Amino acid sequence: MAEVDSFLHLARPLGPAAIGQSSTQPLNVVIHPQAIFSILDHSLRRNADQDRVIGTLLGVRSEDGSEVEIRNCFAVGHTETQEQVEVDMEYQKHMLQLHLRANPKEILVGWYATSSELNTFSALIQNFYGGQGEGTWPHPAVHLTVSTVPGQDINVKTYISAPVGVTAERAADSAAFIPVPHEIRYGDAEKSGLELISSAKEREDRKAGVLTDIESLERSIEEVLDLLDRVNTYVENVIEEDEEPSSALGQFLLNTLALAPKVEPADIERDFNNHIQDVLVISYLANSIRTQIDLSNRLATAALTMGEGETGRQGGNTEGQKGERPRGGQRRQNRNQAQE
Predict the structure, then answer these.
(1) Is the Cβ–Cβ distance between 36 and 193 less than 8 Å?
(2) Which of 62, 68, 133, 209 has its CB surrounded by the most CB atoms within 10 Å?
(3) By the 8 A CB rule, do 176 and 14 touch?
């Protein structure tokens, strides 16, 4: 488990307010796995001559501005050399408008880079995202760095910035980056997906098949049984004085057991069987409806095909009758000529 960094926050401006930047505040950043995967995918698709790529972070902010939740992101093209940096601002503005239309609840919260290095160009981009107008002002912009060095663990850090004591002419490319605590938060569905993806690292072909519902249920039950064995082992060691007791852990276990419903095992088995029967009935009805729709489509297609065939035969008979009439008239004329 990675070590947790400690942070010191100063809830006061670190520079003159005339520069147009907001003051720094205690901040906590929550990152969703979807944003991390998008950043890693962008890093894998970068050009060979690029050391890092950047993009825009979208999410929500608490009412007091003390917590930022990063939910989504998109890439922004840029070129960077030792002398200058160029960012496609027009593309960033248009993409931001499209994302805000699709997700009205999300807002601009900052930007990311696939490098842990902080330089003058980082300060320039940070001031652009945290400025007034189309930036995050009056709240500070969040800068997320994700290290993507091959063969090393992914290192994630989050920063906010504050203006430093420089002149107004140098304020655009100057900023003091302050690290802030962060956490990667995911739900049950995301946890299942991450566990499925992580299982591929133990295979040579780096592939992981999707589990069925029964297999997922079996794996979940095995994990619960393993956790119960660990708790049972810990309690036995504490009773036998082989391990130091923990009052916090004991209180947590007591609260967890208090949440367990007072239900007989026979009632649990009956409810579980009834639930399985309901699921089977719904599955049967869904398959029946799907079969009926497929049969209706085939009957409609067959009717259209037969109708076109009859129309073609009727057209052929009409043309044949029109073609036989001249031949009958010619025979009568030949008979009259023979009588004369």
Answers:
(1) no
(2) 68
(3) yes
The per-residue DSSP string of 286-311 comes to HHHHHHHHHHHHHHHHHHHHHHHHHH
How many Cβ atoms sit within 10 Å of the Cβ of residue 25? 16
| Tokens matching residue 94 | 């248009």
Spatial contact of 4 and 180, defined as CB atoms under 8 Å apart: no
Task: Report whether 284 contacts 277 (CB < 8 A).
Answer: no
Q: How far apart are CA 223 and CA 44, in angstroms?
A: 34
Cis amide prior to 138 (ω within 30 degrees)? yes
Phi, psi dihedrals of residue 237, rounded to the nearest 5°: -65, -35
Place of tokens 């209706």: 296
For residue 272, give the H/E element and its range. Answer: helix 265-339
Q: Above 80 in pLDDT, residue 248? A: yes
Q: Measured between alpha carbons, how far is 32 from 131 in angstroms, rounded to an integer? A: 25
For the stretch 313-335, pLDDT in tens is 555 555 555 444 545 555 555 55
Full-prediction pTM beyond 0.70? no
User: Which of 142, 166, 183 shows the shortest CA–CA distance to 25?
Assistant: 142
Residue 263 burial (C-beta neighbours within 10 Å; 0-12, 13-18, 19+): exposed
| Contact present, 74 and 56 (Cβ < 8 Å) | yes
Handedness of CA 255, 256, 260, 262 (dihedral sign): negative
Triad 4, 116, 31: Cα angle to 5°: 55
Q: Diameter of the chain by CA atoms?
A: 138
Per-residue pLDDT tens digits for 54-113 = 999 999 988 887 889 999 999 998 888 888 888 888 888 899 999 889 888 899 999 999
Contact between residue 112 and residue 146 where contact means Cβ atoms under 8 Å apart? yes
